[in-house]
Amino acid sequence: MKQIPSLLALLVLFGLGLAQKTTLTVGVFPNLDDALKAQIPLFNKKYPDVEVKLVIQQYADHHNALTTALATGQGLPDVAAIEVGFVGRFAEGQGFEDLNKAPYNAGQYKRLFTPYTIAQATASDGRFIAMPVDIGPGTFFYRVDILQKAGVDPKNMMTWPGYIAAGRKIKATTGAFLIADASDVAWINIFATTPANNSPYFDAQGKVVVDSPRFVRAFELAKNIRAAGLDARIGAWSNEWYDAFKKGTVATQFSGAWLQGHLQNWMAPETKGLWRVQQLPEGMYASWGGSFYAISSTSKNKALAWEFIKFVTTTREAQVAAFKAIGAFPSLLSAQEDPSFNEPIEFLGGQQARLLWRDAARRVKPLRANKYDRVANEIISQALAQVLDEGKDIPTALAEAKRLIERRMR
Amino acid sequence: MRKSVGTSTSGQGSPPLAMRWSSFQRRYAPYIFVSPFFILFLVFGLYPTLFSLYMSFQAWTPSDGWGRWKYVGLENYTFTLTDPMFWRSLWNTIWLGVFSGVPQHLIAIPLAFVIHMVLSRFKTFVTAVYFLPYITSSVAIALIFNTLFATNNGVINLAIAHLNTWPLLGALLPDQNINWFTSANIKYALALVVIWQFTGWNTLLYLSAIQAIPKDLYEAASVDGATRLQQFRYITLPLLRPMMFFAVSLTIIGNMQLFEQPFVLLNGGASAATPGGQTATMYMYRTAFEWLEMGTAASIAWLLFVFIGILTYLNNLIFGRAARGGD
């Protein structure tokens, strides 16, 4: 009989022990998972009793799984990574916590981030559903060896007419294409010319603006490049795309700063030292990609999930760790002050490119996410394909695109 | 012991437990044994089908969560039927169906006849070779063709470039690399992939049907002096009609549901937005999982069902029982 109290005590202790070790599930896609793997040990220093479990799926599968989980309210991870392409649509749904509200009160942290990211994760009714973790300042990559061979000064490519003129020279002297696909020029123009606090496709009142002069100009530039035979007509993320970078058959590329990491790590490591970056032509600044973390409304560990998100997004050491692991450009302003930003990048021939990207990131205007961004994006892509591939007239294509987008806004 | 207890408690008139058990077995055991199929069918077949019918009358965005749907009547159907993107994707599907479906049969029928008549000794081997593409994963096929069709260093373009140097043929061929992934060209590339993949399957179907044709018909014909060609025209073709109906029906259904080949080929090679390669099922997938308009996507599914039904009916008029006067 004497043992009973001690047995009970043991049971209680055991129970507490079980309760103390909490598991937090984080749904994430590659290679953001590598950033988390670098951050979790730091997080565990502060919270040794939390086990962070990663659920890693490919980019499209991850977002499909999130959609299904939101639909059924089953199987959502505590913390979900969301890429910028989906954050607008998810923001309009009710599946994720509004971080503006107590107990999160994320409002106090917003000033810590690169400003435009906040707008991206804010729904039209003002709910703030995800914290920004990395950003993709738009940048102009070029092959210095090809430009030298062609006798082209990259400074002369800082206007769009100059860019196209240089392209003709490059094609004539080296045979290399100016760019992989003309549509990239259209896209970077569309993103960079969006007025502050608007969506690229909708104005502040939510009206479709895809027939406005900035779209016409973007389409015309792409059409001129295609007509001059300066683009290789290669779709992004295809084997041919990687091959073009490896073999140097393409001289320039517009992309997020993250392209450097991809080129260096797997796409074309052998081109080390041959690439340089500069700002986009004509004083344009645009963001190209970015990731966020959100807390699902069905999570049983919301407080802990919030601690985790706060840790990976607002602590400088965690952001710098991710930056060093995968080259993801931190959204946290203080992390951008890390001494590593001054380091020369060997892949870019010793350029201090991070300073350039930081400068670009701070000049990008805040864009607002719209529920119909993905629909509009797809319809504009199709219109662009019709203009470039089928010779469709630009005003007709844009007017048709506008009508198609408006139809979908039911 | 137990038996006697059973009889005593159940009264005078009822049979013993063992007997009741055996009659229960006889009556219900078959149902229990076939039930797994029906349970699986109810859960994974009938329920989703009926649910998608229900869904087609609702407006629902999955990211809003379960149960937050709104009844919109026929709006999804009227929207889809007046949607130029839907009609374009359906047109692409029908184009692909014709340009990949018809050649399959035009190749498969003579091929089966030749295999049966001439290559009888190597029949098994040849059939296996032709059948191989059918059992290969569509995704793997699309990835391989993606590489073959590549604009600047794909084998197909390299071959065309090489043929260009030939004296007469060169004049007929384009002197620039063809970009197969543009709206205009992707259809031909896709048709080629589908023909390659499914001709073997149809050959196998026709071969089995040809083998079922009685030999004495051919013998009688050759006694009467009919040539191989005449035998093919007047014996094989008419007797293949039921199989043609079956094979063409399968082709219609398969082509209307064409998805993996364009999906992988387009995602890997060009923008998924290339309008010329967007089939109806791809458009449905996009509506559901990219734009999160589940109700509209469900209405597309049911409209496709209706279209497949109509096409199969037309096929029946041409090849089926109706064409043969109901014999």
- Give a quick account of the main beta sheet of chain A: strands, pairing sense, barrel closure: 9 strands, mixed
Rg of chain A, rounded, reads 24 Å
Task: Say how many strands of chain B there are.
Answer: 2
The topology string of helices and strands of chain A comes to HEHEHEHHEHHEHHHEHEEHHEHHH
User: What fraction strand of chain A?
Assistant: 5-15%
Low-confidence stretches of chain A: 10-17
Describe this structure as you would to a colleague.
Chain A is of the alpha/beta class. Chain A has helices at residues 3-20, 32-46, 59-72, 84-92, 115-120, 144-150, 160-174, 183-192, 213-227, 239-247, 259-267, 302-314, 316-326, 353-363, 373-390, 394-408, and strands spanning 22-28, 50-56, 79-83, 131-143, 177-179, 250-256, 275-278, 287-295, 329-330. In chain A, strands 1, 2, 3, 4, 5, 6, 7, 8 and 9 form a nine-stranded mixed β-sheet that branches. The radius of gyration of chain A is 24 Å and the shape is globular. The termini of chain A are far apart. Residues 10-17 of chain A have low confidence and may be disordered. In chain B, helix 9 packs antiparallel against helix 13. Mean pLDDT of chain B is 85; it is low at 1-10. A two-stranded antiparallel sheet of chain B has the order 1-2. Chain B is mainly α and 327 residues long. Chain B is 73% helix and 1% strand. Chain B contains 15 helices and two strands. In chain B, 33% of the residues are buried. Classes of the chains: A alpha/beta (410), B mainly alpha (327).
List the helices and strands and how they pair.
The complex is a heterodimer of chains A (about 400) and B (about 325).
Chain A: H1 3-20, E1 22-28, H2 32-46, E2 50-56, H3 59-72, E3 79-83, H4 84-92, H5 115-120, E4 131-143, H6 144-150, H7 160-174, E5 177-179, H8 183-192, H9 213-227, H10 239-247, E6 250-256, H11 259-267, E7 275-278, E8 287-295, H12 302-314, H13 316-326, E9 329-330, H14 353-363, H15 373-390, H16 394-408
Parallel strand pairs in A: 1-2, 1-3, 5-6
Antiparallel strand pairs in A: 3-8, 4-6, 4-7, 4-8, 4-9
Helix pairs in contact in A: 2-13, 6-7, 8-9, 15-16
Chain B: H1 2-9, H2 17-55, E1 58-59, E2 70-71, H3 75-81, H4 84-117, H5 123-135, H6 138-148, H7 155-163, H8 169-172, H9 183-211, H10 215-223, H11 228-239, H12 241-256, H13 260-269, H14 280-290, H15 294-319
